[in-house]
User: Which sequence fits this backbone?
């Protein structure tokens, strides 16, 4: 079975996603720490807002489905648009978190 050019790009893109996730969580790692302590300034950085369960849900059924369904079912190629949309959202939300926007409510001093 030969793959079309679009399917080859989707397969390569999925491979890059796997490498990217390895880099975020294993080597060098640090994404959960950054998200919880730096970007979100969580009171419970060991489990909120990014914990193992929501990380699994975001990465496996949500992301992998949009990478693999168009690969195996080329007539559903429009599902690959999610990759572009989620990448754009990720870039915007990361930039916003780094800039301190939206402003976090503060507790008035007693």
Assistant:
């Amino acid at each position: 079975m030969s793959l079309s050019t679009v399917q080859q790009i989707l397969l390569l893109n999925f491979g890059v996603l796997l490498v990217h996730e390895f880099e975020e969580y294993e080597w060098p790692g640090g994404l959960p720490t950054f998200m919880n302590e730096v970007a979100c300034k969580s009171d419970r950085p060991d489990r909120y807002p990014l914990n193992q369960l929501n990380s699994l849900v975001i990465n496996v059924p949500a992301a992998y489905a949009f990478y693999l369904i168009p690969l195996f079912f080329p007539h559903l190629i429009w599902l690959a648009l999610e990759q572009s949309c989620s990448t754009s959202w990720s870039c915007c939300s990361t930039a916003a978190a780094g800039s301190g926007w939206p402003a976090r409510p503060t507790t008035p001093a007693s």
